[in-house]
Design a protein that fits this description.
The structure is a single chain. This protein has about 575 residues and is of the alpha/beta class. The chain is built from 19 helices and 15 strands. The strands form 3 sheets. A 7-stranded mixed beta sheet has the order 5-6-7-8-9-11-10. The chain has a 6-stranded mixed beta sheet with strand order 4-3-2-12-13-14, with no helix packed on it. Strand 6 and strand 7 (about 175-180) form a beta hairpin. Helix 2 (about 75-85) packs parallel to helix 3 (about 105-125), helix 15 runs antiparallel to helix 17 (about 480-490) and helix 18 packs across helix 19. The longest helix is centred in the last third of the chain and has 30 residues, at about 535-565.
């Protein structure tokens, strides 16, 4: 048995050294621009704040719960197309959600199609699109045939094959590549994927046809093929295709190396290696009209596929102001000075507003007449207070943390919302730089730790010990539970065994959300081209990456003990 194993390892090693073969017969390039989730909206006549609640910010008071720059969307799309016209891209690809209200407002699609038609006419460059979950639905104003009709010039009329049952089609990209535009949507359920055995069979057939014609297949679909956040199939299941690993296994072994997707609104590159050593990469693209307002450019040769993140640089703010009333000079000046920074501020305020809404009793359907109202109110009102509380200075989170023996490190962040939304912004932008020992993750975990102690103590005092605390407070004393919790933290430290266990489970999730350690840069990099074959090496690297992942998990646990929960 040992001899057989030794022989197998020797063969594997030999293949890993010499199995790379590059076909250099034709090195002609294909350069494409890839965008997704345009979410075009007709701009309002005048910007206005959110309908429920308000956002206290001089620039971003009109941010929305989607954190999308809806009124500016058309101008951002125009700027994107203008940059594509000025570049040497051969094609422009758009991976779904062209219109934000596309299901109910056909006219939004018609407006987007008019922009694309003007671009094609002016540049001679072909645009290819596929539908997203916002674009069409059964019984909606825009159904499947409507979508094919509106976007006939952007794939369907120039396709090699068009599916009769959905919006999938194929088209050639240059002389060496073939686009398989795959409709991954569910026409009856807005967000969920609609992958079926029939659609998988379509990909298989068209991948074989591409190979027979001497072309390399590239898949474009709206939903993600691979995880772009930890446990995406569980945490955000509607954004990734069902049975995603088995689907990736099939796609990889059918010769598909590159998949272009959207939907998650994040810039992220992920890789999967099949059992046969075939590697497939899923390039998720951010929403064009949300921070970071970017798209991808990709250059294909036999040897390499090079990709880069390209920001939308400037929008026509004069035209924006002529179209939409209500923008201040400060807002326009900020957009002109740094459009990406403005979009990031808009995103952070929008995310904060959305989270704030989800933490309200009204949103959870809790009424004052409910017997548990006081208990829920005590917990969630305090949670909102702590997230909005200044991190530093008098009456701050740092000051409160000292009472519980929890050290809140110094930083430039203002409050808990600022830290949390910064991590969300980096998730969207890609190339997340935050390890468990980073200031941001340390701040967030220790703030969670503080919330566990303070919120629970406040709940016990407000609900369970209400009568006793009324007497104590007449004498200027803290509540019983709060006083005992603070005393226990000073004597025994800030973490109980139960809390340590909960946070230890939470930390790896946060680590992978804030730090991309899969070895594939999200925004700028090079992967092997379609002409490169290194299956044995890939299989070996896949085994090694599994053990590296185990080591990372173990390191995370050590970091929790050493860095996050140390008393200082």
């Amino acid at each position: 048995m040992k001899k057989i194993l030794a022989l197998f390892l020797s063969i594997l090693l030999a293949f890993s050294v010499c199995a790379v073969s590059v076909s250099a017969a034709d090195t002609s390039d294909l350069r494409i621009a890839v965008a997704s989730d345009l979410h075009f909206n007709f701009p309002r006549e005048e910007i206005a704040g959110p309908e429920i609640g308000s956002i206290d910010d001089p620039l971003f008071w009109y941010a929305n719960r989607r954190a999308a720059m809806e009124d500016e969307s058309g101008f951002i799309i125009d700027a994107f197309l203008r940059q594509c016209a000025e570049s040497d891209y051969d094609y422009v690809l758009i991976a779904g959600d062209l219109a934000d209200n596309g299901r109910s407002r056909r006219e939004e699609h018609e407006a987007v199609a008019a922009k694309l038609a003007a671009f094609e006419q002016a540049t001679g460059k072909q645009v290819f699109v596929i539908d997203g979950n916002h674009d069409l639905g059964n019984g909606s104003a825009t159904e499947m045939q409507d979508f094919k009709e509106i976007y006939a010039d952007f794939g369907y009329d120039r396709a090699l094959t068009v599916s009769e049952d959905d919006c999938s089609y194929t088209a050639d990209l240059g002389s060496k590549y073939r686009l398989i535009a795959l409709d991954s949507c569910n026409y009856n359920k807005s967000t969920e994927d609609g992958m079926t055995a029939k659609k998988i069979a379509f990909v298989h057939r068209e991948a074989k046809n591409a190979k027979k014609d001497g072309r390399y297949p590239i898949v474009m679909m709206h939903h993600n093929l691979l995880d772009h956040m930890p446990m995406q199939r569980i945490v955000s299941r509607n954004f990734i295709v069902r049975f995603h690993r088995s689907t990736a296994e099939l796609f990889a072994d059918w010769g598909i190396r590159v998949v272009l997707s959207g939907h998650e609104h994040c810039s992220d590159a992920a890789v999967y290696t099949s059992a046969l050593g075939n590697r497939i990469y899923d390039f998720a693209n951010t929403s064009l009209t949300m921070f970071p307002l970017s798209f991808r450019e990709m250059t294909f040769t036999d040897e390499t596929v090079q990709y880069d993140d390209v920001p939308v640089q400037k929008i026509d703010t004069d035209a924006l102001r002529r179209t939409v009333r209500g923008y201040s000079d400060a807002q326009i000046d900020a957009m002109n000075a740094d459009l990406a920074a403005y979009a990031k501020g808009f995103l952070k305020k929008g995310v904060e507003y959305r989270l704030w809404l989800s933490l309200t009793l009204e949103k959870m359907g809790v009424k004052e007449s409910d017997f548990y109202y006081d208990a829920v109110y005590a917990v969630f009102s305090r949670l909102n207070e702590l997230l909005a509380m200044p991190l530093y200075g008098e009456g701050s989170v740092q000051e409160l943390g000292k009472a519980y023996n929890i050290n809140i490190p110094d930083s430039a962040y203002e409050n808990g919302w600022d830290v949390a939304t910064e991590l969300v912004a980096w998730h969207y932008a890609g190339s997340e730089p935050f390890g468990l020992d980073s200031t941001e993750v340390t701040l967030l975990l220790r703030t969670v730790n503080l919330i566990l102690h303070d919120d629970l103590a406040r709940f016990n005092d407000a609900i369970l010990l209400k009568g006793a605390n009324a007497l104590l407070r007449k004498n200027g004393e803290d509540g019983i539970a709060q006083s005992l919790t603070k005393l226990g933290c000073k004597v025994f430290g800030p973490v109980t065994a139960g809390e340590f266990f909960l946070l230890a489970l939470f930390s790896p999730l946060l680590y992978e959300f804030g730090f991309d350690g899969d070895g594939v840069d999200d925004n700028h990099g090079t992967i092997p081209g379609y002409g490169v074959r290194a299956n044995a090496q890939n299989a070996r690297d896949g085994v090694l990456s599994f053990f590296r992942l185990l080591l990372v998990r173990f390191e995370n646990l050590l970091l929790i003990v050493r860095r996050v929960f140390r008393l200082a």
